[in-house]
Amino acid sequence: MDSFWDFFWLLLSAFFFLAYLVVLIQVLGDLLRDRELSGWWKAVWVVFLIVVPALTALVYLVVRGRGMAERGDEAAARAREAYRGASSGRTPVDQIATARTLLDSGAIDEAEYRTLKERALA
């Protein structure tokens, strides 16, 4: 590197390359997270991401950007719920015992007990 400007352009191009990689990773993560999109459409998006990556990433953000944000919010909500369940201090055995007590007392019926049991074991 002979001058300051060579170094400056190197930093600028490295920044944009890393930003581009982050966008590609976000798009691929969203593709894999989306349960409504069929496997064939996912394959088509991935092929286009390999063949024409920058244009495909921009098109994906424009076409599916809103759904991308919603899926991200849903994933964050699921992670928060999992954390709350893990940090509540109640083990699945405790939750099932509580549900059994409620069933025996008549506060819930058999279907609700099975639901609570499945949720505790999940």
UniProtKB/TrEMBL annotation:
It is a multi-pass membrane protein. It is an enzyme of class 2 (transferase). It is found in: Cell membrane. InterPro entries: CLS_N (IPR027379), SHOCT (IPR018649). It holds the Pfam family PLDc_N. Residues 21-64 form the Cardiolipin synthase N-terminal domain. The chain crosses the membrane at residues 7-28, 40-63. Keywords: Cell membrane, Membrane, Transferase, Transmembrane, Transmembrane helix. Residues 94-121 form the SHOCT domain. One of its GO terms (molecular function) is transferase activity. Its EC number is 2.7.8.-. This is Cardiolipin synthase A. It comes from Nocardioides aquaticus.
